[in-house]
Amino acid sequence: MKTLSDLGERKAIKLIENILTKGDNILDIGDDCAALDFEKQYLLVTTDMISQKTHIPKEMTPFQIGWFIVSINLSDIAAKGGKPLGVVLSYGLQKKTSAKYLKELTRGANTCATTFKTNIIGGDTKETSEITICGTAFGIVNKDEFIPRKGAKTDDLIAVTGSLGKAGAGYYCLKNNILNKNISKALLEPFPKLKEGQLLAQQKCATSCMDLSDGLSSSLYQLSEINDVGFEINYEKIPISSSLLKLKKKNTKLNVSDFVLHFGGDYELLLTIPPNFFPKIKNILEKNDCNLYSIGKVTKDKHVKINLGNNVEILENKGYEHFKKQLF
Amino acid sequence: MKTLSDLGERKAIKLIENILTKGDNILDIGDDCAALDFEKQYLLVTTDMISQKTHIPKEMTPFQIGWFIVSINLSDIAAKGGKPLGVVLSYGLQKKTSAKYLKELTRGANTCATTFKTNIIGGDTKETSEITICGTAFGIVNKDEFIPRKGAKTDDLIAVTGSLGKAGAGYYCLKNNILNKNISKALLEPFPKLKEGQLLAQQKCATSCMDLSDGLSSSLYQLSEINDVGFEINYEKIPISSSLLKLKKKNTKLNVSDFVLHFGGDYELLLTIPPNFFPKIKNILEKNDCNLYSIGKVTKDKHVKINLGNNVEILENKGYEHFKKQLF
């Protein structure tokens, strides 16, 4: 009998999608958010669950857990160009969980929500044997500004909204007992790129977008499959986290490219954009204290490749997949 | 240091509410659903989590678990008079969970959603050490038709939409190895009272409403606190589940009133309504194959009392509360 460990997360999701009855009012299943017809707008809905054993490193404070669950849900709203309307949280907690833990968890969630101009508007509290937190965020986007996962065209540029490897640097510090709160913060208190997503949406020129929660290689493979195209990224063009580069100087065994190419948790946006729009959009983002870096292009050839300067190779799909491997 | 076991669920919820920043676009925190301003309507959002150890009896099939999580969320939409727009699900599953389990779980969730004319529109699948499922339902209601928890007035009648003790009868069968699929179905595959909620909403005369997921006594105490009123219910007027009465005949030790008054899981609606509207509303519900039973009245005296025919007593608050006690 097949288990989820045999299937892996993405095949499990396909199995689910094949069973579900698709509503007439639904744009698509399998994007970062579900998008529901709402007159001239889409109501965006996304949900994400984390649990102690598989997603919460022991160094994470309850404040950070609260921040994290809100942040990763808002990141999905950001990837569709949406404005958040609110977040609901379900807490699965233990009898022995302290009231202080509950306070800090809630304070973290509330701080993240208000930082990004939204609110926690409700929730549920249940008893579980393992701490498990589920967040659901919803938002709104004008229909003509929604940025889908599907839409990338050959010769579009592929771009990211910030440096990669920040979360990897944080993970490296935690695993090697390097005390550096600023570096681990990038992993444990990520920032959803809502401003970037909304600016991109307003310009109506991004052809596809998703967040980088699963890491670059895995995300490129997902976009490749959905869009029936390939990618060629240029390693030298990828903005690399300065924290990761600093760590590399003192820790020569650290594999920078592995963290940059395959490690999840950066929560930058990955998007495609026709080349003629790129300079204008980059300019608009930069004027608003945001960034946009072209890291390669969409190819007709359906492989995902990486240009390493001296040669072009197939980029391996080594991203994190639930059930098959574990991040922490 | 205080734990959640010391606090209990309702004090834990108050602690959370005191920390949260309330958004300007939010009607209230602490109702069955959050209600968000949406022009002439409210967007209703509710979330509920269940986990293997504390909420899922071993006799429950994966189909039933899927049905259950969707149903209990839709019940909260029903209690506000809403029309469901969609449901998202987060599955926390184990590596060893079988693909068949996942299929049946999803089939149950999808069947419940489509039975009540809505859809599962998205979700998340994560690895957890204990099976934990979180559902979030959202719906819509015209602002002038929204039925809040707060609004009950002295002399209003208190009513329920169906018989009580169905879930209790199911629980009794499971615990005593009495094989009766029809009886246990009422516990494991409850029906959200969406039609009843919408009919009540259209008539704009229910002054307060909540679902009976926590059981009658606990729900009355909750309404009493929010509304600063009391209740006097008449035991003889409560419609009692025929399954429970049949079980009683063969099992003389079965305490019928305990199941009727204190056991959760019936998912009927509990509402208050001015007495002059009652006959008309009852008639409208009955014409639509629904029911409405007056079981008592709202009192100025703030106690929750029960009229047992020969005497009137204080009704104990023995409902289920998470962290403090366990249902299964």
Annotation field: number of helices of chain A: 12
Main β-sheet description of chain A = 7 strands, mixed
* Distance N to C terminus of chain A: 28 Å
What strand line-up does the widest sheet of chain A have? 7-9-6-10-8-11-12
Q: Please state the structural category of chain A.
A: alpha+beta
CATH architecture classification of the largest domain in chain A = Alpha-Beta Complex
What is the CATH topology classification name of the largest domain in chain A? Phosphoribosyl-aminoimidazole Synthetase, Chain A, domain 2
The radius of gyration over CA of chain A amounts to 19 Å
| Average pLDDT for all residues of chain A | 93
Written description of the protein model:
Two copies of one chain form a homodimer. Chain A has 328 residues and is α+β, with helices and mostly antiparallel strands. Chain A has two domains: 4-143, PurM-like, N-terminal domain (60s Ribosomal Protein L30, Chain: A, 2-Layer Sandwich), CATH 3.30.1330.10; 147-314, Phosphoribosyl-aminoimidazole Synthetase, Chain A, domain 2 (Alpha-Beta Complex). The first copy, chain A, is 37% helix and 24% strand. Chain A is built from twelve helices and twelve strands. Chain A has helices at 4-7, 9-19, 52-55, 62-79, 99-115, 166-175, 181-188, 194-203, 216-227, 242-250, 256-262, 278-287; strands at residues 34-38, 41-51, 83-93, 120-127, 132-142, 157-160, 208-211, 230-234, 269-273, 293-299, 304-307, 312-314. In chain A, the strands form two sheets. In chain A, strands 7-9-6-10-8-11-12 form a seven-stranded mixed β-sheet. A five-stranded mixed β-sheet of chain A has the order 1-2-5-3-4. In chain A, strand 3 (83-93), helix 5 and strand 4 form a beta-alpha-beta unit. In chain A, helix 4 (62-79) runs parallel beside helix 5 (99-115). Chain A is globular, with a radius of gyration of 19 Å. The model of chain A has no long low-confidence stretch (mean pLDDT 93). At the A-B interface, helix 1, helix 2, strand 2, helix 3 and strand 3 of A face helix 1, helix 2, strand 2, helix 3 and strand 3 of B.
